[in-house]
Amino acid sequence: MGCGASKEAPVVTSPAAAKTAGKHHATVAAANNTAATTELRKGSTGTMVASEDTRHETAAGETTQQQVPMTESVKTVLGNHIVRYACLSRKGRDPEVLNKPNQDAYSHQAGEFNNDSADAFFGVYDGHGPTGELCAQFVQRRLPVLVAEHLQEQPNFVLSVDQISFALREAHTTCNEELHASNINDSNSGTTSITLYLQGDYNRITVSNVGDSRAVLGTSDGKKIQAVPLSKDQTPRRADEAKRCEKQGARILSFGQINPAQQDDDTDEEDPPRVWAQNGNYPGTAFTRSLGDNVAEKLGVNAVPEILSLKIGGSEKVIVLATDGIFDVMDNQKVVDTCVKYYKDPLEACRNVIECAHAEWLKNEDCVDEEFANYDDMTIVCIFLGDDSDWKTDKTEAISTDAVSADSAEGVPVLQKTHSKRVRQKTLRNLDEMMGS
User: Fold this and answer.
1) Transmembrane segments in this chain: where (predicted)?
2) Chain-centre distance of CA 20, in angstroms?
3) Domains of the chain
């Protein structure tokens, strides 16, 4: 799970040392939504969700707003690095639930994060369950604030990798506790979290991962750009994750295994292993870590992030954070390849990745009519390191090979092809819901 292009070996910190954080009663800081600009500047901040400007009442009694998407890429200076980035989300579609909200969210704060003009923090959050959009938006608002607060609590001016990792773990566990204590019903709802903390003055990136959204790095050897995973999917497919949940009393079974009588004959549909209680057909999560999911938490589905930290030099070209709405139908390399084609404009890169993923969803569903299409929400943050003029003189080009997967239990990259089977909905909560799907 490392980056061969870096001079310094990546540092992977174990979540085992994470201690339980207490309740955090800090006032929720309102996110500063600033317009994106293509002009060079010292920093930009903002948090945005979804892709339409609409309001709707939720089951929890809260009003959510799907904010206007970015219309331009951002270009900024972060310490030793020129960074160009954009964020984009597209609501999925379920022909049986036409008013389904976008349950994805993203956040971005480049410059002045953690009171440092050279620092930046990016995040992607994939909500699931009846109140998934509320969970994702809660984490989108609170997690960046908590990360900054816990970083500022560390005693040293120059933070060590261990201190950064500790602060990130504390922020995630505190955010999870705050979500449990909020008026959002997260019994069977929650969100993933994949985040990137970039320290421009110290040439370091740190990725924290909860769930099965992904971070991928594109590195150049001067000729080609190779996709390298910065996270590992936390699902019951991983032997270490399955064993950890089983120690907490979970059963790891697919839908077909837990109820063979209801196993359908559709061999084109994937039926992944899930987390189940010993004496009940719930919660049925196809992931092993999340924020929220109060019921599943008792079975080992926790909010403790896996963390990867590494130095960056001149060979790192692009970093992508995205939800499984993209990575379920595109492999790591294809996502990087698509981004690299549009290196001059990160927002255009985001648009084309989402369009490609959308086309793959339709292909997987054997669907040519959007009216009958069924596909997941798709969200991406694309970050290019360096000015576009740096790319003009670089002889690198995208490559089209099988992806390096982040789904290896031992952290050793393995080759992975795109899914040849349709992906069964990951957040179905009980057998009645599954049989009605």
Assistant:
1) none
2) 23
3) 11-235+301-417 (3.60.40.10)
**Angle between the 332-341 and 346-364 helix axes, to the nearest 10 degrees?**
140
> What's the confidence (pLDDT) of residue 405?
35
Assigned token pair, 38: 């293509």
pLDDT tens, position by position, 112-124: 899 999 999 999 9
Residue 389 CB partners (closer than 8 Å, separation 6+): none
Q: Tell me how far apart the alpha carbons of residues 20 and 112 are, in angstroms, rounded to a whole number.
A: 28
Determine the Cα–Cα distance for residues 128 and 292; give it in Å rounded to an integer: 10
Beta strands in 73-221 (DSSP E): 74-78, 81-90, 104-110, 119-128, 190-191, 193-199, 204-210, 214-220
* Nearest by Cα to 96 from 325, 422, 371, 363: 371
Q: Is the pLDDT of residue 22 over 80?
A: no
Within 10 angstroms of residue 253's Cβ, the number of other Cβ atoms is 17
The pLDDT, as a whole number, for residue 366 is 81
Average pLDDT over residues 65-92: 89
Contact 342, 332 (CB under 8 A): no
pTM of the model: 0.81
* CA 422 distance to own-chain centroid: 21
Distance separating alpha carbons of residues 141 and 47, to the nearest angstrom: 7
For residue 403, report the phi and psi dihedrals to the nearest 5 degrees. -80, 155
Sheet of 214-220: strand order equals: 40-41, 74-78, 81-90, 378-385, 316-322, 214-220, 224-229, 397-398
Token pair 């084309």 is found at 352
H/E stretch holding 13? strand 11-13
Between residues 101 and 410, the one the model is more confident about: 101
Of 133, 33, 118, 34, the residue nearest 76 (C-alpha): 118
DSSP state letters, 188-217: S-EE-EEEEEEETTTTEEEEEEESS-EEEE
Neighbouring C-beta atoms of residue 183, cutoff 10 Å: 8
Nearest by Cα to 324 from 65, 128, 81: 128
